[in-house]
């Protein structure tokens, strides 16, 4: 399939390590993929679902100890420990290679080794990058075929170039004690061992498109970010684009597929999805920042996705989709998950572990981090620019987290550097997307804490640098929090489609048409600056949503000081100055 010597030499090296029973190149043809699906159905790795209701759809159950990203076992292996920084696990590359080689030695002797050539980004786009994933998992091949552009056309694009990521994955024995997700940014290499969970092993996603790509972006002058990209078309037919970073399972997929409230639809607004998880951002020839979604599919959290919360995502999963760890409805041979409907269907059901389940014993039927892997082109709101090689120009960048009290509904940073500060101090409550405690607040700068492939202090410096020379063309930077709660712990802001009201204020700030008042945090709307037509929310509730509790913020600032201390002298002085200025504005 290729005569590229560097590719072939590397594959020989891996082959002699893992000693596979057989080697198969993935050419990307439907015929080959269909054969693999068939084999998976035969072994039970996939369950073929009702082909009338869910054509091309399958259910997969992972090992029960392998259901989320494992941040504690994810490593950045660069030569100098200081370059990985205080927020990453580090190991010396030689030590890690030796350990991994031992784990991988002969690991495929009874298995087939698949070679997947893939492109992150539209093939041939100046944004795009090529990788290979060698894997012994058909499930990985079939997921990668949805999540990335794969096959012969990628090899043709690569030609004889040496510019590709070398990835090895083995499901191994799924031993959690010997599970490793390792990145070697200086070698363009990724090794995932003893896992088969998407975020750990669909290497194009977090491993390449964020950890390795963030490192490449720093060296080459671009950004790889944990961001959705959406376009908002106004009634005059102009579309403007926003990228937004939220930590995992905080609603990026929902926001990217937002359906406007009725009154806005009637006025002629529409929202278009470019991406739901990752954005690669470069400076264009026109001096603006342009963004591409490097992925080709959605690896979305299933629970909570419903006709009400996200009909576009639900529709995207109605064909050619792989469901992982959701409820199997045996009566219909379809799938279900929590909050898809109020009650589970009164059918014969199996929970994510495959056990009989009827929803009455208090346990969830679907795993809280159960997923759908759906082709982006299935999504009714997919943007006409989704495949555009030049991406889309950004008017605004949004940072946001899940905060019960501290962060107001929305505020605008004073300028780019202040915006970088706002992103760098983001905090959010943890979710089920990674193993560990759920619901504790942690600092998660730019939602990149688990995904930045180098020292985060240097990452902040790179963000500051990206803003240089943009002038008036710089996207404006905002912070949002949809998750503020009242004294009873209930969300005050309705969220979902109504988030458009906030996005329109944001775009209004970008073109100078929306009003704002200056506060200690930045520019904030008054209630009257946000269009609340048709929304059942009181003035008092709006005031609570927009309020800043200075005492809470003073405690927040103490936490930021502690967090910043970690970065030592790699923390850019601009950010220290921003923190001092915030303290000043909050009053001593
Ligand atoms: C994801 C994640 O899967 O962020 O997108 O965990
Ligand atoms: Mn994500």
Structural write-up:
The chain is α/β, with parallel strands linked by helices and 588 residues long. The protein folds into 3 domains: 5-44 and 70-220, Phosphoenolpyruvate Carboxykinase, domain 1, CATH 3.40.449.10; 225-296 and 383-586, Phosphoenolpyruvate Carboxykinase, domain 3; 298-378, Phosphoenolpyruvate Carboxykinase, domain 2. The chain is 29% helix and 22% strand. It is built from 17 helices and 30 strands. The strands form 6 sheets. Strands 1, 4, 5, 6, 7, 8, 9, 10 and 11 form a 9-stranded mixed β-sheet that branches. The protein is globular, with a radius of gyration of 23 Å. It starts with a helix and ends with a helix. The model has no long low-confidence stretch (mean pLDDT 97).
Q: Which properties best describe this structure?
A:
588 residues; alpha/beta; Phosphoenolpyruvate Carboxykinase, domain 1; Phosphoenolpyruvate Carboxykinase, domain 3; Phosphoenolpyruvate Carboxykinase, domain 2; 3 domains; nine-stranded mixed sheet; 17 helices; binds oxalic acid; binds manganese (II) ion
């Amino acid at each position: 399939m290729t005569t590229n010597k560097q590719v072939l030499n590397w594959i020989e090296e891996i082959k002699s390590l893992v000693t596979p029973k057989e080697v198969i190149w993935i050419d990307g043809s439907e015929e080959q993929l269909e054969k693999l699906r068939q084999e998976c159905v035969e072994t039970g790795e996939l369950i073929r679902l009702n082909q009338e209701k869910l054509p091309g759809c399958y259910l997969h159950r992972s090992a029960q100890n392998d259901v989320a990203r494992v941040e504690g076992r994810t490593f950045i292996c660069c030569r100098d420990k200081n370059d990985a920084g205080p927020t990453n696990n580090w190991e010396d590359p030689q030590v890690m290679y030796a350990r991994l080689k031992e784990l991988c030695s002969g690991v495929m002797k009874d298995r087939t080794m698949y070679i997947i050539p893939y492109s992150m980004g539209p093939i041939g786009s100046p944004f795009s990058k090529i990788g290979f994933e060698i894997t012994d998992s058909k499930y990985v091949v079939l997921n990668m075929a949805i999540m990335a552009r794969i096959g012969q056309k990628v090899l043709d694009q690569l030609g004889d170039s040496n510019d590709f990521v070398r990835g090895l994955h083995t499901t191994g024995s799924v031993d959690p004690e010997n599970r490793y997700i390792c990145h070697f940014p200086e070698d363009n290499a990724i090794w995932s061992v003893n896992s088969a969970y998407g975020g750990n092993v669909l290497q194009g996603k977090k491993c390449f498109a964020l950890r390795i790509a963030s490192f490449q972006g720093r060296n080459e002058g671009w950004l790889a970010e944990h961001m959705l990209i959406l376009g908002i078309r106004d009634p005059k037919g102009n579309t403007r684009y926003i990228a937004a970073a939220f930590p995992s399972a905080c609603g990026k997929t929902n926001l990217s597929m937002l359906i406007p409230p009725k009154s806005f639809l009637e006025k002629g607004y529409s929202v278009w999805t470019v991406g739901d998880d990752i954005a690669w951002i470069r400076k264009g020839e026109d001096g603006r920042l342009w963004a591409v979604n490097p992925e080709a599919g959605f690896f979305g959290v299933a629970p909570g996705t419903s006709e009400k919360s996200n009909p576009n995502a639900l529709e995207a999963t109605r064909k050619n989709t792989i469901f992982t760890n959701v409820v199997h409805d045996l009566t219909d041979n379809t799938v279900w998950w929590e909050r898809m409907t109020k009650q589970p269907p009164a059918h014969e059901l199996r929970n994510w572990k495959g056990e009989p389940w009827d929803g009455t014993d208090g346990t969830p039927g679907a795993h809280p981090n159960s997923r759908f892997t759906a082709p982006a082109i299935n999504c009714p709101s997919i943007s006409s620019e989704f495949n555009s090689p030049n991406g889309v120009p950004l008017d605004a960048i949004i940072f946001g987290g899940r905060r019960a009290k501290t962060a107001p509904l929305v505020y605008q940073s004073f300028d780019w550097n202040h915006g970088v500060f706002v992103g760098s101090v983001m905090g959010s409550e943890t979710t089920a997307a990674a193993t560990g405690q759920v619901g504790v607040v942690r600092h998660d700068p730019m939602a990149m804490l688990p995904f930045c492939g180098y020292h985060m202090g240097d990452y902040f410096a790179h963000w500051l640098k990206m803003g240089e020379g943009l002038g008036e063309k710089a996207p404006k930077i905002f912070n949002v929090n949809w998750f503020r709660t009242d004294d009873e712990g209930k969300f005050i802001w309705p969220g979902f489609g109504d988030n458009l009201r906030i996005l329109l204020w944001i775009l209004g700030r970008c073109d100078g048409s929306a009003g704002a008042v200056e506060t200690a945090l930045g520019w904030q709307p008054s209630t009257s600056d946000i269009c609340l037509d048709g929304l059942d929310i009181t003035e008092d509730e709006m005031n609570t949503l927009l309020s800043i509790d200075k005492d809470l913020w003073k405690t927040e600032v103490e936490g930021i000081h502690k967090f910043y201390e970690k970065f030592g002298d790699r923390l850019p002085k601009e950010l220290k100055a921003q923190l001092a200025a915030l303290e000043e504005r909050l009053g001593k």
